Amino acid sequence: MQKNVAVFFGGSSNEREISVITGLLAVNLLRGSKYRVIPVYLRPEGGMTTGEYRNVSDFAKGGRGKETPVRLGEKCLLSGKRGKVFAPIDCALNCCHGGIGEDGTLSALFTYYKIVSASPEAPMSAIGMDKTLSKLMARGLGIPTVRSFTVTEKKWEARESVLKEAEAFGYPLIVKPAKLGSSIGIKVARDEGEFIAAMELAFRLDSVALVEEYLAGRRDINCAACRVGGETALSPLEEVFSGEEFLTFSEKYETHAGRHSRIPADLPAELADRIASYTRTVYEALGGRGVIRIDFLVKGEEAFFNELNTVPGSLACYLFGRSLTENRYFLISLIEEAMRNPPREKETLSSGILEKGVFAGKGRKR
Is the CATH code 3.30.1360.40 the one for domain 128-143+216-310? Predict the structure, then answer.
């Protein structure tokens, strides 16, 4: 019997539009394979729908055709007020960039509804989505990071102490919203005035800002990891080139004129091996499942952990294959691995305290 793969994309994050692109790429690559593909769109206003989604332009125009509202049930999608089974889900593929799609919320729902997922689980997703947590994780694993400090909105209310800390770090500094991706909201601050403006922008988009030392002349190196055949597989290293002070959203997704990359990256063998080793360490330490991409900053012979992407752009297909056929095979391998090695359900213990009469009335102990 043909198995069903549900591809989830969209959502309400700042990266929703990029998620639509990644989701439809996955949907169209998997169509015509041995799986029945069910595209599931997370609407910005809430809820999920499915339909015969095929083209990015359909979402740009708002004319997505006939849609069916659905919701998650145990190992299935439900529809209608009475919760009729719309379709079983044999495997889910998460293509939601940012927000509740990438921060572990959707992954946790898959776990709750006992849906096998070919994407990272909730703990890794939550750590990857928060740049402050991912830096703590990297440091704990002995992986270098650039100097940084974190500023909350509450701390920013007494900004004089923050301004002194920034001055002590030394300009220029780079300011990032802690839980956004795709370079959204990132600014380079060369002096106090630009720093204040960058912080104000960050807090319009997020509740926490990460302030980092700016590495002039750094190189942007990416490495992806996945699990195939029970073993961790690493992609070739990619160097992404930028014509700006950092790799911007426009360079990534709009102009393409200033963005290009080299695969494999031209690095000394020892440095390349070290970056690959860091990637493997993170993936395995966090219980790797599905595909991730880690972005590094390289300055001279030093490599610094920068970001962990648990729903990387295009699901990092291009790092594991250079043709559409190879990209399709890569996605199928992720799905097969997930179904072949689903998370094992563990025993749940019960104390029986509710039957022992220890508590009475409104939770008061007798």
Answer: no
